[in-house]
Specification:
The chain is an alpha/beta fold. The protein has two domains: 2-90, Alpha/beta knot (3-Layer(aba) Sandwich), CATH 3.40.1280; 100-129, no CATH class. It has five helices and four strands. A four-stranded parallel sheet has the order 2-4-1-3. The longest helix has 18 residues, at 73-90.
């Protein structure tokens, strides 16, 4: 559910940045990157959903020249990730590395989603530890 996902991200301190060539947008070079944000892409045909549009804190565009309005989704995502990664890496004021605790949390989350019947394995492990 899009609304639940975006609400959860906002509760965790993320700004929602939607990609769209229309409303109150800025370029990737102008986008503030000094705080956590989630970049949301729409579908190639329809763009971002109404929920994303309404819940977004900012909008970003990739300038286009010629007759087309937008890049396809894979090109858009690649251009955004490249530009933002370069900006983050070149900034001395942005702490872009995960803390050890964050690394552990991400790793455990990945494991829990990768292992079938993980709840039984965890329960068995915890029972053996006690």
């Amino acid at each position: 559910n899009t609304k639940n996902c975006l609400s959860s991200l906002k509760e965790k301190g993320f700004k929602i940045v939607a990609t769209t060539p229309h409303e109150k947008d800025c370029t990737l070079k102008e986008l503030p990157i000094d705080n956590k944000f989630a970049l949301v892409f729409g579908t190639e045909k329809e763009g971002i959903s109404k929920d994303v549009f309404e819940m977004a804190d900012a909008y970003v565009k990739i300038p286009m020249y010629g007759f087309t309005e937008s890049f396809n989704i894979s090109v858009c995502a690649a251009l955004c990730m490249y530009e933002l990664t370069e900006r983050i890496r070149s900034s001395s004021s942005i702490q872009s590395k995960l803390s050890e605790e964050e690394k552990t949390d991400v790793y455990l989350s990945w494991l829990r989603h990768s292992i079938s019947k993980v709840e039984f394995i965890e329960k068995d492990f915890l029972n053996k530890e006690n």
